[in-house]
Amino acid sequence: MDTLDRISRLGLAGAGLALVLTFGAGAGVSAASGWSATRTGTENLADATSLGRLAANTPLRISVGLALRDQAGLAQFTHDASIAGTPAYGHYLTPAQFTERYGPTSAQPAAVAAYLRSQGFTKVHVESNRLYVTADGTASQAESAFDTTLMRYRQHGVEIYANSRPARVPTSLGNTVVAVLGLTSASTMQLPHQAAPSADTVPTIKGYSARDFWKVYDVGGTKRGSATPIAIFAEGDLTQVVKDLRSYEADPTNKLPQVPFSVVKVGLKSPDTAGADEWDMDTQTSTGIAGTVKHLYIYDATSLTDADIGLEFNRFVTQDVARAGSASFGECEYQAWADGFMVVNDEVMSEAAAQGQTVFASSGDTGSFCPVAPNNGVPAGVPDVNYPASSSYVVSVGGTTLLANADGTYNNEVAWVAGGGGPSLYEYQPYWQQGVTPPTGSACVDTVACVGKNLPDIAMDADPNTGATVMVGGQPEQIGGTSLASPLALGVWARLQTVNGNTLGFAAPRLYAMAGSAGFHDVTLGDVGIYPATPGWDYATGNGSFDIAQAATLIAHPPTVPTPPATVPSPSCRVLKDPVGDSHPIASNGNVDAMDIRAMGLSSDATNVTTVLRMVSLNSDPVGHPGLGGDGDNWYATWQSGGTEYYLGAQYPGTTPNPNDPTLLVDYSYGTVDTTATGGSLFNNVGTATGSMDLANGFITISTPLSTVGAPAQSAALSGPGAQTYASVGTPAGGLLEPDDSAGPGSDYRVGTSC
């Protein structure tokens, strides 16, 4: 790295990039005269047989997804609202506030609606947050409106339809429309629940009742979830599900109060009962481990297609009546990416987080693979993870085999072999995973196979051998799967929210702030496919399972780093201090203490000049090293002398062992600074400096001979001193940097002065 352009403005492809992979509209790229591309591509149907074109008069329900505004501002707000100690903590947006600040303008959905009507669509409806415009039409109208062709296929013995060309919209809508859902039935969520094996094939441990879960997961004196409303995402005819819930509550082994509930229909009524046992498990185990909840909302979609599930999630956020929900289904994330569902739904999930809502989702029941129908069995599918569990704004729940002592207390857990886990290939790694999970790319925008978010976040009981006993069709049945783990996590979260007056907001940042604490059982045995359980976070079980009583104590008070005084050690003279925190730039990992400047000092003798940078913390990651602002941290101290601006800098990770800790690799340099035509700073690396880090006290010390920085005479002024930090984004070697924090200009320093 000789010369690098450090642009002190948004540098990742300009506007349209935010902290979530799928925020960018993606549209607006002219594919042909008069047409613009959307994020709705084509499915991989190599294993399907073509049956010809879909009949022109086939009725379709279309959902057009629209782009958010001010995505950088939304990411900033969600970060601040999710972390204790920041000014916005505990203050979340209402749906109306979200729409006003970040939703599409009122003119944008109106233009989409007018276009759909001009193409013959009827029952055109704009969702209240303006993120979806839905309409009824025919296959021929959809083909004409979105410049595509709809074909019929037979895949895995099932007849489906799909668009054979990516969907496009008129250029006038190019910056508005993100994706068009409903053009394919190939992308459908799978239900990963499993019944317990028969006793004559596998030894079966009796399934847990609600009160069994209380004891084994250590409820202790933790309040029930009576103040917290929750949601379950379901599909089909739920008549029997409601009856089974009442039977479960009345069962003598559970003895639970009847929870108030509402079935919220989203879309057309469906007679389907194929998933009834899934919805039985979801409703019963979530409210069961919670003890009770304020209200249970069951969102009931027409089908498990991406188009219908998308509207179901959107209703959850626009109503904003439940603090959290559970989705016990998923699909290979490449499918959600291909049809554009991931793009639109991540916008919806970001709204949920900004409103203080949390969605838990099953990581899957096919180990380190994603599901293909039939979805059960290991190995199965392709090496990929499940969506929506892979969404950066969803909490992914993996699976364990839960073992209890004879008295019902916790004994141990083993990673359940079929539990889902692995890195996402499409979603970026959110800042709360930094320093806890393996480092991956933090700028996975529009990039396939970039390796981003790590799954799962947490884990709960899933093995059908140690699963839950629930009521199905009026009879007890033992069921497991990560579709048990997800509602269990939801029920625990209801308790934690009730304890804290429903102020906890989006769960993920708080869960990771609690990583490695007594609030989690660290699962260290077993594996899921190619990923073993290990001490600390792992791809098999994430942070582990809840110890509820411990979590109730810790969740509201995650570890914080005291802000150090803005001092520097003698003989350095402090030339500036900075009371303002770092800005966590776009595509970085949020506010990082190692990038937060507190003070800068300068000192010199007859030979050398030395700078000392004091940061808020240089030991905040799990092994006592600096937290990463992106893929790497960069620190600079600057001043002007003889008409030239000079710098002393440090880069981490580097190649040189730190004197105080040889496992810490940091490179130190000196050089000159130029201003680029675009207003950025160009740090010209001239040579290697000497330096060290005092990890315990947050000091970075860098020295170079005076002769290398213009040879200023004794008593000469080093004017306008300043300090800057930058996060390497997407390029660990230091290619593209985003400005993180800056301070100065400070007081002039005169060579030879000691303080």
Tell me roughly what share of residues is in helical segments.
10-25%
Please state the second-level CATH architecture of the largest domain. 3-Layer(aba) Sandwich
- Output the CATH homologous superfamily of the largest domain: Peptidase S8/S53 domain
* Total helical segments: 13
As a percent range, the share of strand residues is 25-35%
CATH top-level class of the largest domain: Alpha Beta
- Spans of 5+ residues with little confidence (pLDDT < 50)? 1-32, 84-89, 198-204, 373-379, 441-450, 584-590
Largest sheet geometry:
8 strands, antiparallel
**Rg, Cα atoms, Å:** 28 Å
CATH topology of the largest domain: Rossmann fold
Overall pLDDT: 86
Give the tally of structural domains. 3
Total number of strands: 44
User: Helices and strands: which structural class?
Assistant: alpha+beta
Note the gap between the termini: 35 Å
Shape: globular
3D architecture notes:
The chain is α+β, with helices and mostly antiparallel strands and 755 residues long. The chain is built from 13 helices and 44 strands. It folds into 3 domains: 33-68 and 103-181, no CATH class; 194-424 and 453-554, Peptidase S8/S53 domain (Rossmann fold, 3-Layer(aba) Sandwich); 573-750. Helix 6 (239-250) runs parallel beside helix 7 (276-290) and helix 7 (276-290) runs parallel beside helix 11 (482-499). The longest helix has 18 residues, at 482-499. The two termini are 35 Å apart. The model is unreliable at 1-32, 84-89, 198-204, 373-379, 441-450 and 584-590 (pLDDT under 50).
